Amino acid sequence: MTLFNWVIPIRLIDLFEIGIFALILYKLYQLMRGTIAIQIFAGIFVLLGLQFVVTILDMTLLGSLFRVISDVFVLAVIILFQPEIRRLLLVIGQNPLIRRFFTSKAAEPLVDEVMNAISSMRQSRTGALIAIERTTGLRSYVETGSPIEARLTTELLETIFYEKSPLHDGAVIVRNNRIDAARCILPVSTSMKLSPHLGLRHRSAIGLSETTDALVVVVSEETGKVSVALNGEMIVDIAPDRLREYLTEAIAHDTARTRELAAAN
Fold it and tell me: CATH 3.40.1700.10 occupies which residues in the chain?
């Protein structure tokens, strides 16, 4: 048998499949980098390596053990990496080609209200933390704050975050095109890759975006800069045009869900 007989034919589709698989692994690594999930991922690769060695050496006892583990392996991976898998799917959903199918003209007035409030708070250096619900429910965080349940307006946002207002600490949560609650408590991110210069308000914004798909807008009280947290990442000092794009996408989803709820009733 010649060496040529051992050559495995590689098709163009095989190269394409390898490229897609490598891209998915790279994106997962980016999402997990700096978190405890990367350590779990490394541990899983070690177990897979051991299983390969056990199979090659035909070890009966260990082989039986690994077969039992493999029965629940896929389910365990989904449970352990659920936040990372969800963020990967959200990154795919943020593609401009996909987002354009979900934009809505009904969102534009609401985006204008938020943009006007943010512009005013940026100039006055008024600290603010605004979380906009998308597909993941934020009811558990709404319940930590003071109920507002009012139409979203520029004046109301500015009043809530006025430094002498009793509601200015904590986050405002926007659900179904309305301000559901203020002074809400958000989870604080413990990621080791965050800048030590980020304050509690920014860490809370990232913390919520790590566990949900909410869009969180932060106005810095110290610098007046506006930042956006999404999918566990933060864009610091975001440009107004780009901020409007993010808000339009988030609120458009909210508008579409509101229409669905109205139709169901």
Answer: 102-264
Task: Calculate Rg over the CA atoms of the chain.
Answer: 23
| Residue that has been written with the tokens 């709404």 in this structure | 142
- Beta carbons within 8 Å of 98's beta carbon, 6+ residues apart: 92
CA distance 37 to 23: 18
Query: Mean pLDDT over all residues of the chain?
Result: 78
| 97, pLDDT greater than 70 | no
Tokens coding 69:
């583990």
Residue given tokens 């946002």 in the structure block: 157
CA distance linking residue 83 with residue 200, whole number of Å = 22
Rounded-to-integer distance, Cα 114 and Cα 151, Å: 12
Interatomic CA distance for residues 19 and 217, integer angstroms = 35
Nearest to 121 by CA among 92, 144, 81, 155: 155
How many residues are recorded in the chain? 265
- Tokens 């619900």 identify what position? 133
Q: What does the pLDDT look like over 4-53, one tens digit per residue?
A: 455 567 778 878 888 888 887 777 677 666 666 666 667 777 777 777 78
Asked whether the whole model's pTM tops 0.85, one would answer no
**Domain spanning 102-264: which CATH class is it, in words?**
alpha beta
Q: pLDDT band for position 96 (50/70/90)? A: low
Tens-digit pLDDT profile for residues 111-151: 889 999 999 999 999 999 999 988 888 888 999 999 998 99
Cβ-Cβ contacts under 8 Å for 236 (sequence gap 6 or more): 225, 227
Q: How far apart are CA 171 and CA 182, in angstroms?
A: 6
